[in-house]
Write a structure and sequence with these properties.
43% of the residues lie in helices and 16% in strands. By secondary structure, the protein is an alpha+beta fold. The protein has three domains: 77 residues, Orthogonal Bundle (Arc Repressor Mutant, subunit A), CATH 1.10.10; 95 residues, D-Maltodextrin-Binding Protein, domain 2 (3-Layer(aba) Sandwich), CATH 3.40.190; 108 residues, D-Maltodextrin-Binding Protein, domain 2 (3-Layer(aba) Sandwich). It has a five-stranded mixed sheet with strand order 4-3-5-10-6. Strand 1 and strand 2 form a beta hairpin. The longest helix has 22 residues. It is globular and about 70 Å long. It starts with 6 loop residues before the first helix and ends with a helix. GO terms for molecular function: DNA binding; DNA-binding transcription factor activity.
């Protein structure tokens, strides 16, 4: 290559992290042909195959692994530079990313444990289900602490398991819904979304639109209603005035049942390893007391 194409740096990083060129193309929003072109140009430049195909995708050569380490550090340095501002100073405000269920669970516990003393403050940022965006936010210091599903391994991000996947099916205590029977009818996470009356909040459907769908189908009492929402207010309001049910992690149910009149049944269909809860933060924040305190309080028994 006569001229360096800096876009090729992200191609190397993404292929190594995913072990798959197609997934790299999806993350980078590039055509597969463009990924292949970049790899071929890099192979010519370095006189090395860089990636070897196997049954699970591709494996990096020794040189590709070395390039990844150099390029990854360079990418993080660039992202940090773009996140700087003229007034940037050391702050005790923690910027956090998590789903609203965890926000509800965590906030009361933080207040009960006197977290907000001195200069400590906490900001919950807009939720995104995209793993690549969550990682980017952590690398570029837009987010200090991410609590949610496990992200891809990254040398700059510390990942700590907080809770195993242990879900329950929840409704108002006076609801006629047979939670145990319905939970038994869902045998696998893949078909749970087709059967569950309310899915775990994912954040990509507007609550207002889902509420209209719910109202429209109220006359069809035997028809299952599929409802996704970001709004905890809608969930708990609907559970209090209807027979709607909701799947949530047991640790959140145990906490919420202290304040709401609820009943539950075990929901093993959701108890898959990829739905466990993890904390993620940048390796440079490993000694930050406020982050460690939040994680410690989150993990305390109710």
């Amino acid at each position: 290559m006569d001229k360096i194409n800096y876009n090729f740096i992200r191609v190397i990083i993404s292929i190594v992290e995913h072990s798959n060129m197609s997934r790299a193309a999806e993350e980078l929003e590039m055509l597969p042909g463009s990924i292949s072109y970049a790899v071929n140009q890099l192979r010519k430049h370095f006189n090395d195959p860089l990636f070897i195909r196997d049954k699970n995708g591709v494996k990096p050569t020794s040189l590709a692994k070395q390039l990844y380490q150099h390029f990854k550090r360079a990418e993080e340095s660039i992202e940090r530079a773009f996140s700087l501002s003229p007034l940037q100073t050391e702050s005790s405000n923690i910027k956090m990313h998590t789903i609203q269920l965890n926000e509800l669970y965590l906030m009361k516990k933080l207040m009960d444990n006197d977290y907000f003393t001195g200069d400590n403050s906490l900001s919950f940022c807009a939720f995104t289900p995209s793993a690549s965006k969550r990682l980017q936010q952590l690398r570029s210091w837009q987010i200090d602490l991410d609590i949610g599903l496990k992200l891809w391994e990254d040398p700059s991000i510390i990942c700590i398991k907080l809770k195993d996947a242990d879900f329950v099916y929840v409704a108002h205590k006076d609801s006629p819904v047979d939670l145990e029977a319905h939970a038994r009818s869902v045998t696998h996470f893949k078909n749970s979304q087709a059967n569950a009356r309310v899915a775990w909040a994912q954040g990509w459907t507007q609550a207002e639109e889902s509420l209209r769908l719910y109202i429209k189908n109220q006359s069809e009492r035997n028809k299952e209603i599929f409802y996704r929402t970001e709004s905890l207010a809608n969930i708990f309001l609907l559970m209090s005035i209807s027979d709607i049910a909701y799947a949530m992690p047991r640790y959140i149910y145990n906490y919420c049942s202290r304040f709401f009149s609820l009943k539950h049944a075990d929901f093993p269909a959701f108890n898959v390893s990829r739905l466990a809860t993890y904390a993620h933060y940048h390796v440079n924040n490993k000694n930050k007391n406020s982050i460690n305190k939040i994680i410690e309080i989150f993990n305390r028994e109710n």
